[in-house]
Write a structure and sequence with these properties.
Blueprint lengths: L1 H13 L1 E2 L8 E5 L2 H13 L4 E3 L5 E3 L13 E6 L6 E2 L17 H4 L6 H17 L16 H12 L4 H4 L20
Antiparallel strand pairs: 1-6, 2-5, 3-4
Amino acid sequence: MLVLRIRFVLYIDVMLTELNLKTDNVMLSIEDDGMLADFVKAEVDSPTPRKQIDESRIIYKSRKFGRPDKAKGYGLPSLCDLGESRIGATQESNPFVQPHIYRAPEVMFDMPWGSAADIWNVAGLIWDLFEVEHLFGDVFDARGGHDPFKHFALIVALIGEPPSEFVKRSETTGQCFDTNGKSPAPT
């Protein structure tokens, strides 16, 4: 709740848009000290594999933490890596904002965007955290690049066609919809 309050204050006071919300940029504090003790014991009992690169570098394989005690749980989430944040009510589009998998429709279609893009991003992130899979999973082309048209087709399949006001905000949407927001019939 604290993080949500902070984000709300940032949106209202300075109009901050984060744009890089993804699981890699959310850290959870640990309230169950037993998790750390269990982690250390597991490392002592069965050390993780490692590879010595040279005299000063060793690469260790990651070891997963166990789950916290149900009575304690995880602590509050904290956002980290605010390097892609923008200040202002609206921003011009940029192809490098937001992780592909969480990209908001207005960003995909080169429209000006604002904090609503973050709300879209947070919704996708929350889905992933609870469902352990992406809401719009297969959004990449055969070469591994983001395919905004395929991505938007998955969005339309889930929530329906966009309103005509949305379609009229971008020339790019004309490749997918008529001016009323309707998809052309397949040929």
